[in-house]
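Course assignment 3, question 2. Fill in each field.
Student: A.L.
Task: Predict the tertiary structure for the chain below.
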Amino acid sequence: MNSNGFKEKGTPLQEVVATVPEKKVKLKIEKNRIRRGLYLAGGILSLALAILGIAVPGLPVTPLALLSAFLFAKSSERLYNWLLSNRILGPRIRNYQRRKGVTRKGKLGIMLFMTVMVLFSSFVVIQIIPIRIVILSMGVIGMVVVWFFVPTALDDPAKVENEDETK
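Answer field:
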């Protein structure tokens, strides 16, 4: 008997860990060089804004990272894979892709943060009334877009995986 209480039979027990690779996504790279260049430039710009949004409050990180992933998927498989494997932005993008949207709780959090930032910007920072009205209007439009146009994901990711397996 060993210290764990198991009978020894010549070879020690080993723990086996298996990882299942994620599904390989087939990208549709644009064949037109001009369009591919425009997608690439847009992807780089949105990625730069997403990185800037990590430090600047009110600048959305995840939507810009999702946009850059979409644009890289049409322009560069290497940049798309690099973005998905990035330790800061990659998990956000993969979570959105896996759940196929944002949970209701996530949407409410986004809308609460937007409300705070819009109200702070329009009533504390901006003193010109027409600009306040524009900021408030844009905030309302942003909330409508988040609530009605951003896909709503299931709260439980296991439900999403079970739905995928039945299809």
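Instructor remarks: The helical segments are 33-55, 61-75, 77-85, 90-99, 104-125, 129-148, 157-166. The chain has two domains: 29-99, 102-167.
Grade: pending
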